[in-house]
Amino acid sequence: KNEVEQSPQNLTAQEGEFITINCSYSVGISALHWLQQHPGGGIVSLFMLSSGKKKHGRLIATINIQEKHSSLHITASHPRDSAVYICAVRLIGNQFYFGTGTSLTVIP
Amino acid sequence: DAEITQSPRHKITETGRQVTLACHQTWNHNNMFWYRQDLGHGLRLIHYSYGVHDTNKGEVSDGYSVSRSNTEDLPLTLESAASSQTSVYFCASSPRAMNTEAFFGQGTRLTVV
């Protein structure tokens, strides 16, 4: 049983499309992170959320603590957004649990 | 700039050999973590440390060990490498405070033949 579930697992979009990636979790958390991993690359933190909504450029992340759900949105998607997006939750005890990732491919 | 670095980036080793992967961070973070990443699984926790001389087992700790002799380093040792330990390994660090960012190394791709 995964404490963190992401959907979809794979996503292909045309350049310019609006993209949504979802994350649900089943444990009590202190924060939720959205991470980005390019093929063969390291992992970069995009957002850390404990409530509400955050925006950075074309990326928007929201979290609903009561429903234990978060979404990552990409507006006006671009081929350089192609990557694996990982949802991670930070437990009260400082450990992290990770989703299996959503592989996004944006086609020109 | 502060950073977290892993070395080597790529390693091929033979079954049964002892291997050590290095992780070094310059943020002075208390918390350090080792994960492995395999297809079909999320990142899985191997070992973690909340400070000098503190080490704890994660969910997939069998066959691995760590030591924390200073704040900056958490080396991961595979006592006797097995083919099942072929994976990509990520080190991460974070401050002790709850609502803070975690930072990840670039990863080490280990192949056990």
Structure write-up:
The complex is a heterodimer of chains A (108) and B (113). Chain A has strands spanning 4-7, 10-14, 19-25, 29-37, 43-49, 52-56, 59-64, 69-74, 83-91, 96-98, 102-107. Chain A is mainly β and 108 residues long. In chain A, the strands form 2 sheets. In chain A, strands 2, 4, 5, 9, 10 and 11 form a 6-stranded mixed beta sheet that branches. A 5-stranded antiparallel beta sheet of chain A has the order 1-3-8-7-6, with no helix packed on it. Chain A starts with a strand and ends with a strand. In chain A, 34% of the residues are buried. Chain B has 113 residues and is an all-beta fold. In chain B, strands 2, 4, 5, 6, 9, 10 and 11 form a 7-stranded mixed beta sheet that branches. Chain B has no helices and 11 strands. Chain A binds chain B through residues 2, 4, 30-31, 33, 35, 41-45, 48, 50, 86, 88, 90, 92, 94-101, and chain B through 31, 33, 35, 40-45, 48, 50, 58, 90, 92, 94, 96, 98-107.
pLDDT < 50 stretches of chain B: none
Radius of gyration of chain A: 13 Å
SSE pattern of chain A:
EEEEEEEEEEE
Overall 3D form of chain B: globular
Radius of gyration of chain B: 13 Å
Distance between the termini of chain B: 37 Å
CA(first)-CA(last) distance of chain A: 37 Å
Mean pLDDT of chain B: 93
Give helix % range of chain B.
Answer: under 10%
Helix content of chain A: under 10%
- Percent of residues in beta strands of chain B: over 45%
Unreliable runs of chain A, pLDDT <50, ≥5 residues? none
Mean pLDDT of chain A: 92
The biggest beta sheet of chain B is recorded as: 7 strands, mixed
The backbone outline of chain A, from C-alpha atoms, is globular
Number of distinct beta strands of chain B: 11
Total number of strands of chain A: 11
